Known about the structure:
The complex is a heterodimer of chains A (147) and B (147).
Chain A: H1 20-48, H2 58-65, H3 68-96, H4 100-127
Chain B: H1 36-63, H2 69-77, H3 82-110, H4 118-145
Protoporphyrin IX containing FE sits between chains B (44-45, 48-49, 51-52, 55, 95, 98-99, 102-103, 105-106) and A (25, 28-29, 32, 35-36, 39, 81, 84-85, 88-89, 91).
Amino acid sequence: xxxxxxxxxSAARTRSGMNLEKWGWMYMRASGxxxxxxxxxxxxxxxxxxxxxxxxxxxxxxxxxxxxFWQVWDTLxxxxxxxxxxxxxxxxxxxxxTKPKVRSALHFALASSTAVLLILGTLVxxxxxxxxxxxxxxxxxxxxxxx
Amino acid sequence: MxxxxxxxxxxxxxxxxxxxxxxxxxxxGTLYRGHEGMWSWVLHRITGVAIYFFLLVHIxxxxxxxxxxxxxxxxxxxxxxxxxxxxxxxxxxxIGFHALNGLRIILVDxxxxxxxxxxxxxxxxxxxxxxxxxxxxPRHLIHVFGG
Lengths: 147, 147
Ligand code: HEM
């Protein structure tokens, strides 16, 4: 077996400390494994069980989001999937966009849309009122009438 | 690819060098172009982008539960139309592929013999994907078209 000398390039990096790209790479894989469970569970409960897509309406969502289990499930799904997707899109931008200004603009668009949607989605999950006052009783969950 | 001819362009008195015959223009000799690995990558990228854009819309449409039961129900009704029903089938197909192929990527990266079996793993992904879709498609289509 031949031994290859250590590279002597002056460009060889000897940086110590955090390697953000490596953590991004790890995040894609770690979040991916968890997302398999979260997404298949999500699709099963909403599209396969019961009446599938035709059962989905406000009352159906109210039933789920008034349960802390689904609140946590949906929060994890929101954060893990959106950050995974945005970071994946960052990879595509880096692959295909060479003009530095366009690249920064797209990175900014990805980061800001991600931040806005994470805040919006999280607020929706935790400030949601399953039985809004004055709502048409036909449209809200049956458990509202027992409150 | 044009073969490089030694000494071309310069009048040289040295003995002609033998140039290896140009390789036939097939791409089969390259690392993975045209093979399972390439399709795995292409499909992973396309499905990732498609799911990302759906996720952006999906966070916004779900946020309508915070507006009013009427607003949410009107928009979600459009998810139950035949065209959207077929779109959901395609979306589940895309997510199913991305999820299974994502697990394949993770196995190739972390499993000691993953790289050696990457080709078989890709066919495994396609097989499991087919099973998934055969299970999901009839049930979903009945929910959409079955009245
Ligand atoms: C279902 C579970 C999922 C798994 C197991 C998974 C796994 C992966 C893995 C391993 C990568 C490769 C990262 C790399 O090469 O460094 C990746 C890339 C990507 N994922 Fe996912 N993912 C999942 C869900 C999602 C979701 C929900 C989205 C969209 C919101 C998404 C969007 C993307 C994008 C855009 C890329 C970049 C593609 C590329 O670089 O070619 N993924 N995914």
